[in-house]
Amino acid sequence: MCFFRKQDLVSAVCCLKRALYLNPFEWIVSYNLGLVHLTMGQYASAFHHFHASVSLQPEFASSCMYLGVTLARLEDMKSAIGAYEKALSLAPSDHVIYLNYAITLYNNNEDSRARKVFETFEELFVKLDDSGAVTHDEDVIAMSTALRNEFSWTSDKK
Questions:
Q1: Distance of CA 147 to the CA centre of its chain
Q2: How many Cα atoms are found within 13 Å in the side-chain-facing hemisphere of 78?
Q3: DSSP state of 134
Q4: Average pLDDT, the chain
Q5: Distance between CA atoms of 36 and 20, rounded to whole angstroms?
């Protein structure tokens, strides 16, 4: 994943494919390949690897969440919602799952459901802030701010 961090995605795919060839039942390799393909916008390939990761390690909530993100990009909302719900059942206090779920719902014109999910995200996010136990990812802060602004803009518009 060092290549992924350096944004050398082609090299990351090559190394991960080699790792998958050497150990096809290692769920984390499929998960990492899914992340790389999702980043590259190759949603069908990302789906394939996230699905394999979930099949091999069904208790890993992040695989389910990213499967939901990928399915939403593939415009399969029913399955995406199912993947998010599975992720939330595995990790009900993971604020990132709630944020991605809210963004997906909002992007698919389900504003009222998105608001409810986003409110849960904000409650969890504030608890993390108060505890000081976690440093927040800049992307999480940026996306939550953007979604909060969208919600305030749409409520002003009504």
A1: 15
A2: 0
A3: -
A4: 88
A5: 14
Q: Are the CB atoms for 147 and 106 separated by under 8 Å?
A: yes
Range with lowest mean pLDDT among 9-13, 56-60, 141-145: 9-13
133 vs 127: CA distance, rounded Å: 10
- Given a contact cutoff of 8 angstroms between Cβ atoms, the answer to whether 18 and 49 are in contact is no
Give the residue among 26, 37, 116, 108 at the shortest CA–CA distance from 70: 37
Q: 139 is written with which tokens?
A: 């992307």
pLDDT tens-digit map of 3-16: 555 566 777 777 88
Structure token digits, residue 154: 């749409």
- What does the pLDDT look like over 98-127, one tens digit per residue? 999 999 999 999 999 999 999 999 999 888
Amino acid in the structure at residue 27: W
DSSP annotation of 58: T
Which parts of the chain fold into alpha helices (H)? Answer: 2-5, 9-22, 27-40, 43-56, 61-73, 77-90, 95-107, 111-131, 138-157
Query: Is residue 61 within 8 Å of residue 87, measured between CB atoms?
Result: yes
